[in-house]
Amino acid sequence: MSGNFSTQILGWFLYTQNQMAIVRFTRQRQAVLEVVQHSSDHPDAARIYDDVRRIVPSISLGTVYRSLEALVSEGHLLQIQQPGMPTRYDARLENHAHFVCGSCGQVVDVLTNLPDLVPLAAAFLPKFEISTAQVEFHGQCSECATRARVLS
Ligand SMILES: [Zn+2]
Ligand SMILES: [Zn+2]
Fold this sequence. Notes:
By secondary structure, the chain is an alpha+beta fold. The protein is built from five helices and five strands; from the N terminus they run αααββββαβα. It has helices at 5-37, 45-52, 61-73, 117-124, 142-151; strands spanning 78-80, 88-90, 97-101, 107-110, 136-139. It starts with a helix and ends with a helix.
């Protein structure tokens, strides 16, 4: 009988605990990804948390943030950053533009065939390595424009 037996058991136990934690995190991360994939309006972390809690009631806001971070770094989600607004998440990975309403902040996809802007910019900036381009249109959505007209 090896004297290391209890150490082995402990090792196995820690390994199992670790594997269970990984499986749990993988499941939670999958739920986070599905929530973003099923919403078309580029939700922020707080909205994603509200929606994912309906599928995984025990999930914490911290886990949602960690899942989003992992999903972005693995290329499953894109981030949309607006000054003064929380980061929003996009599961549509193909090249597309966004329209941002300056009043309510909603972000809408503009699904038009965009030219590849990277080589255009690279021609202007030969000393830089440009990897991506993001096109953003700004203005007001029809509800906000109507509200502005009514109030003025
Ligand atoms: Zn608006
Ligand atoms: Zn989008």
